[in-house]
Specification:
4 helices; two-stranded antiparallel ribbon; 130 residues; single chain
Length: 130
């Protein structure tokens, strides 16, 4: 049995273990015991596989990871999945107006027409202008 990769966090090791199990490679996550000099910190977990599956497992684990949505969205020109989301100024302008217009309108209403109040005794609604 050989260690494919060492991990600081168990969840990362478990994620890669699930990936290898889905590919049909039997593997285990272990917490090895190291004798290390004081002040150094060894990896906490290792993902181990059988010797005959070592190269295949290493290739699967160490290949660059692509986000899930990037695999689905592909370039319309070259049809490759290596894309990322781009936030342009036009989208930002619409987003800003969606936030700014209600703020301007509510501020204008407050100063032009006064604030809206409700009487707790009779329920009368009225505006009070400063």
């Amino acid at each position: 049995m050989k260690a494919v990769k060492a991990y600081e966090v168990y969840e990362e090791a478990e994620f890669d273990q699930i990936t290898l199990l889905a590919e049909g490679i039997d593997c285990k996550v272990i917490a090895p015991k190291y004798d290390t000099p004081r002040g150094t910190r060894p990896p906490r977990y290792e993902l181990i596989v059988e010797d005959e599956n070592f190269e295949n497992a290493k290739e699967i684990i160490l290949k660059p990871e692509v986000e899930g949505f990037e695999r689905i969205i592909k370039c319309t020109r070259c049809n490759k999945g290596d894309v990322y989301e781009y936030w342009d100024e036009e989208n930002f302008a619409w987003f800003a107006w969606i936030l700014i217009i209600p703020l301007i309108v509510s501020t204008f209403n407050k100063f032009a027409f006064g604030e809206l109040y409700v009487c707790r005794d009779c329920g009368q609604k009225f505006r009070y202008k400063l």
